[in-house]
Amino acid sequence: MSGADLILGIESSCDDTAVALVARDGTVRAANVARQDHIHADFGGVYPEFASRAHVASILPTIRETLERASAGPEDLRAIGVTRGPGLIGSLLVGLNAAAGLGAAWDVPVIGINHLRGHLRSADLEAEPIALPALVLLVSGGHTLLAHMKSRTDIRILGTTRDDSVGEAFDKVARMLDLGFPGGPALDRLARDGAPSVPFPRPLIQDGLDFSFSGLKSAVARYVEQGADASAEEIAASVIAACVDVLAAKTARALGQVDAVTLVAVGGVAANSQLRDRLQTVARDAGVALRLAPTQWATDNGAMVALAAWDYIEAGQTPPPVGQARLSLEEF
Amino acid sequence: MILIVDLASPNRRVVLADGPVPRRAEELAVKADAAVVLPNAIETALHAEGRVKRDLTCVVANIGPGGLSATRAGVTFANAFAFGLGLPLAAVGYLDLLAREAAYRGLGPALCVKRAANDTAFAALSRDGTVLARRFGRFAEILPALLAAGPTPSAALGVLPPEGDALLPRETMHHPDIASPSESVLAAAAASAALEAGPAFLTPINELSPDFAGGIPA
DSSP state, A161? Predict the structure, then answer.
C-alpha cells in the first residue's frame, strides 16, 4: 500500500479558484477557495477576462496553502483531478495548465473531470456514500439538469435547461432589484421577508423534464419596468416560488420514470432554503431518501473534482487527456 | 540548466539553455493545447540533452505581451512546474526580447510591437537592446508619443496592427520576418533574468501592468 492516498482537486471553471485534498472515502483533508466576488461586483456578473487573470494570480498560492494546511506533499498524491469543462475557456485553461505543470514536475497523473460530474459527486463528500441508483437534481449558476445515476460511472441526463440556468435567472432578477453580486443568496435572503404574491409563470411545468427560465426572467423584467405594485421582498419570494414549483414538479415527474432509491440535490441553488424544504416533500411522496449536498460543498469546489477523479482510479480507467476538448457528463 | 517557456512569441516553444547558450528547442504546434503538449516537449528536450528534471536550476517564462490564452497557459504552467520542483522563477518580456533581437542583429533603434485587439497595440522604442519607453493603446495614437521619446527607429519588429506599416516613419523598415526572438537572444535574456530569479509567481503582462498604465518616462 503506497502512501499516495490523496487526490488534489483543482476547480477553475468560473470565478472561484478552488483547491482541495480528498481521500478515497470522500474525507476532505484540506480545502481552500480564492473568491473573486469583489472583482466582478461592479459588472453584476462574472467578467470572463478578469476571472481568468485572477485565476493566474491566485491558483498557485491557493494550491500551496492547501498543501500546507494538510502538511501534504507530492508523495501523498495518487493523482491530480482538474476541471476540464464546461466553463469559461480562459478560466479553465489556467486550472488545466497548473495541473499539467504540477503533474509533470511530480510525475503524478492528471485526470480531467467534467464539472457537472464533480457536482453530482459532491453529496458524497464527508458523508456516507449515497445509495444508488439515484436521481440527481443539479441546480447552479451555470447549470440546471436532472440526471439518473445508476452507478458512479453510469450517468444519464434526463433533462436540462433550454436557455438560462435557474441560478442565472436568480442572478439576473437580483440585478433588476439592485441586490448586488452574487445575487442568488441575496435574493434568497430577501424572499424570507416577502409573500409570493405575484403570479409569475411556471415555464414548461406541465411538459417533460427539460427546463426553461428565460421567459420567467423576462416576465419579471416587464413587471419591474411597468412599475411593480409588489415590494422587492414580494417579487423575490414570487420568483423563487415559481422556480421551486418548476424544479419540484420536474423532479417528482422524473422520480416516477426512473428506478431510484435516493433523490440528491447538488449545486449552489441547492442551498436555497425553500427548495430544500420542497424537495423533502417530493422525496417523501416518492418513497425515496433525500440527500442534499452539504452547503459547504454545494457551490463550486475542488473537493468534488477530486472525488470524481477517484472514480477513475477506482474503475482502473486510463485518465482522459487533460486538454480542453469537450468531455460530456455521460462520457466516462 | 535553465528551462525557458515561451508561449508569448508567435513561435511557441520550450528551450533548454546552459547559461546564455541555447542547447535544445522544442517548437509547439500553433493550435496545440499547451496543457497536453508542454509536458511532452519538456521531456523530449531533456531526453535529447541527456538530462533529467533535477538538472534544471531555474524556470524562465515569457510573460508577454502575447496571445492572451497562450501567454496565460505558458506562465501558469511555468509557475506550477517551478513550484513543483522547488525551482526559482524569472520573467522575460516579449518587447524586451525584440529590443535585444534588434541589437543582436545590428538594426539600430527599433520599434517593437505586439498587436492587440481593436486596433490597439503594445509597443516599445529601444536603443542598443534597451527599452527607452513603452505604451499601450491605439497604435496611431501611441506611435507619435513613442517617436518623441528617443531616436527615430530604423527598424520595426514584432507583430504590427493592420495598416500599421503605413503609420511608420519613412526611415523605419518593417521586418515582418522578425516576429519571434531567436533562441540565442532568448537564452541570453533568460540567463540575465535568472540571476534575479526568486520564489514569486509570475503573471502575464496586460494593459494594466505598471509599465503600460503609466506615461512615458522622461
Answer: B
CA nearest to A47, candidates A15, A95, A18: A15
* Residue for grid cell 423533502: A280
Give the up-direction half-sphere exposure of residue A90: CA atoms within 13 A in the CB hemisphere: 17
What are phi and psi for residue A295, nearest 5 degrees? Answer: -50, -40
Instruction: Quote the longest CA-to-CA distance of chain B.
Output: 51
Four-residue CA torsion sign, B84, B89, B95, B98: negative
In this predicted complex, what is the ipTM? 0.95
Q: Decide if B203 and A324 are in contact by the 8 Å CB cutoff.
A: no
C-alpha distance from A141 to closest chain B C-alpha (Å)? 24
Minimal Cβ distance to B80: which of A52, A57, A101: A101
**Whole-number Å distance between alpha carbons of A243 and A187:** 12
Q: What is the pairing mode between strands A17-23 and A28-34?
A: antiparallel
b/e for A39-67, b at 16 or more Cβ within 10 A?
A: bbeeebbbbbebbbbbbbbbbbbbbeebb
- Cα atoms in the 13 Å half-sphere on the side-chain side of B184: 6
Which residues are paired to B114 by β-bridges?
B122, B159
Question: Which one, of B35, B59, B17, lies nearest residue B201 by Cα?
Answer: B59
User: Which amino acid is located at B31 in the chain?
Assistant: K
pLDDT digit string (tens) for chain A, length 332 residues: 457 899 999 999 988 999 999 999 999 999 999 998 888 887 777 889 999 999 999 999 999 999 999 999 999 999 999 999 888 999 999 999 999 999 999 999 999 999 999 999 999 999 999 999 999 999 988 899 999 999 998 999 999 999 999 998 998 999 999 998 778 889 999 999 999 999 999 999 999 999 999 999 999 999 999 987 899 999 999 999 999 999 999 999 999 999 999 999 999 899 888 999 999 999 999 999 999 988 889 989 999 999 999 999 999 886 666 665 667 777 77
Give dist(CA A230, CA A176) in Å, integer: 14
Pairwise CB contact (< 8 Å): A56 & B83: no
Q: Which residues in chain B are contacts of A92 at CB distance < 8 A?
A: none
Helix or strand run (H / E) with residue A106: helix A89-106
Q: How far apart (Å, rounded) are the C-alpha atoms in residues A58 and A8? A: 16
